Amino acid sequence: MTTLFVLDVPENTAVAEVAGRDPAVTVDHVGPYFRIVSDSHIVIDRRATGCRHAVWYSSVAGLAQSRITQWDKDAMRIEPR
Amino acid sequence: MSELQHTVKGVDHVAYPTFDPAGTVKFYRDVLGFPVVHSICAAGWGPEKHPDFIHFFFDIGNDDRLAFFYYFGLEPFDGGPQGDSYSRFAEDVPIFFIRSRHLAIHVDSEDDLMEYRRRLDGSAWPVEMQIQHETIESIYTHDPNGYMIEITRALRPVTPQEDLDANLTIDALVDVVTGPDPSMDALLTRKAELITERAAAWQQQQESKEVATR
User: Fold this and answer.
1) Which of A20, A72, B1, B63 is deepest in the core (most CB within 10 A)?
2) Distance CA B50, CA B71 (A)
3) What is the per-residue pLDDT for B49?
4) How do residues B23-80 score in pLDDT, each as one tens digit?
5) Which branch of life, at top level (chain A) (predicted)?
6) Helix, strand, coil share (%) of chain B residues, nearest 5
7) CB B127 within 8 A of CB B140
8) Sheet-wide strand order for A62-64
9) Number of Cβ atoms within 10 Å of the Cβ of A43
10) What are phi and psi of B209, to 5 degrees?
């Protein structure tokens, strides 16, 4: 299970929203964090989020049994470990 | 999280050495408009070869002060082509490392930030960068001594969940750097464990606090 945590603050809401557009992805909350989960990989398009680079590159709060395989100005890709 | 009482009241003063007191006064007093609020003429009080020094202070708001030491007759030290009056670095020291040491001064609004931008841009020390970070916006330049100075404003107030997140990050960092192989990957994995352990309980605590204050 690929699991990504993102803190629920105004700058990050688009990250969770864009991730959740994939029907294979579910988004819920653990405390003040978005928990973004998929059976396979999670891909988030940076431009679709509208995030500035400083927000984008500090948006990941935690990874459970998962690893980042791409995190550049175009996209973030998280895969099961 | 620490349970120690937090009774400090901000920065009394931060002090740097200068070899260019005239430039320093011009930059801080005449360009930025930071008042001179204190100075000490230490005649014969300094070290053997440089007994006479001046210690002078600028008000940087909030009763906090930025101070400089000027030692008569003291020449700048070697050490490399990069850096500032305090530390000279060899050519191969990366600039991100050198710039990680800087002083950031707070302003309350965009108008105030832009006013300091105008003052700097009209001087010999124009703004080198203006950047919106996660939740702050900053301008940067270097003073006549080569010290990097930042003026910054908050884009919004810091929320309680960001304080929680900061504490989880630091607890994860301490765990990871005391382990065998520190990395961002290890930190984010450890942090996910801490989020799972603590975040839901924190949220419940916040909600009961809110109910109690209603």
Assistant:
1) A20
2) 6
3) 77
4) 999 999 999 999 999 999 988 776 777 788 999 999 999 999 999 999 999 999 989 9
5) Bacteria
6) 35, 25, 40
7) yes
8) A25-30, A33-38, A2-7, A62-64
9) 17
10) -60, -45
Distance CA B24, CA B16 (A): 11
Q: How many CB pairs under 8 A join A and B?
A: 68
Helices B160-177 and B184-213, axial angle in degrees (round to 10):
150
pTM over 0.90: no
Contacting A with CB below 8 Å, chain B residues are 131-135, 156, 159, 161-162, 164-165, 168, 185, 188-189, 191-196, 198-203
Asked if the model's pLDDT at residue B1 lies above 60, the reply is no
Question: A40 — contact with chain B (CB < 8 Å)?
Answer: no
Spatial CA neighbour of B60 closest among B146, B149, B178: B149
Q: Specify the DSSP element, H or E, that contains A12.
A: none
* Spatial distance between the Cα atoms of A63 and A80, rounded to a whole number of angstroms: 10
Identify whether the C-beta of residue B27 lies closer than 8 Å to the C-beta of residue B123.
yes
Provide the ipTM. Answer: 0.93
Distance, in angstroms, between A18 CA and closest chain B CA? 19
Closest-CA distance, A40 to chain B, in angstroms, reads: 18
